[in-house]
């Protein structure tokens, strides 16, 4: 049984009319069933004036079990699962430590979706961007964390690219350098900037240690002077620019030793020839 209501609040009279698809129907009554359910009909029209001579400015209607707006639907703010929101803002409260807040899809409702999730991992709320496959199984692709969380601020999970305070890591979650790569690097050329290149070894007045001193150092330390030991390299890595400078310095010093040895050999050869001539 339905009860006909002839009087409705004046505010509703001024802004609502229930129409069919082809004509306006001002002064139609709202019907409320005995179970308390209000039947509003298919269309709700909103008018900027109340005399019924102008067409509706905004229409809300039902189509395919969906509420659709045929005009610009504007609200000062929207809160989903929360009453706390500011003007011109959308606030979504997930109400759980890991909540899916936004779901985007092209032409599938329950598969092949993009999801924006907020996750409480401690000290801060992270924003995860995940994608799903044809079984709607999630794969985390990007994670954003605030700097005060103590976690990497930006993580690309598939390729393990991590940006944290200017450091980029590939294959590592703890990059301690501007670029940290846990793996091989292949390039056509690598240029390393360096200063104080050791050409000074060939300056006049540069003192080269003796070969005897070099031999004693090698016996005691098992590596060349100024060159990092194997233990240091294993621990701290190899600084290409700095080590190349030290290797070149050692090479230049050894070159000077070779030149001096060659002069001594030439001198000995001359003396040897003289001895042979005197014997004859």
Proportion of strand residues: 25-35%
Number of helices: 4
Low-confidence stretches: 1-23
H/E element string? EHEEEEEEEEEEEEEEEHHH
**Average pLDDT across residues?**
83
* Largest sheet entry: 8 strands, mixed
Annotation, overall tally of beta strands: 16
- In whole angstroms, how far apart are the ends? 146 Å
- Strand line-up in the sheet with most strands: 9-10-11-12-13-14-15-16
C-alpha geometry? rod-shaped
Question: How would you describe this protein?
Answer:
There is one protein chain. With 280 residues, the chain is α+β, with helices and mostly antiparallel strands. It has 3 domains: 2-69, no CATH class; 78-181, no CATH class; 198-279, no CATH class. The protein has helices at residues 10-15, 211-221, 230-236, 240-279, and strands at 2-4, 31-33, 38-39, 43-46, 58-63, 66-69, 78-80, 90-92, 98-104, 114-120, 125-132, 138-144, 154-156, 161-164, 167-170, 179-181. An 8-stranded mixed β-sheet has the order 9-10-11-12-13-14-15-16, with no helix packed on it. The chain has a 3-stranded antiparallel β-sheet with strand order 1-2-3, with no helix packed on it. A hairpin with a 4-residue loop joins strand 2 (31-33) and strand 3 (38-39). It is rod-shaped. It starts with a strand and ends with a helix. The relative contact order is 0.05. Mean pLDDT is 83; it is low at 1-23.
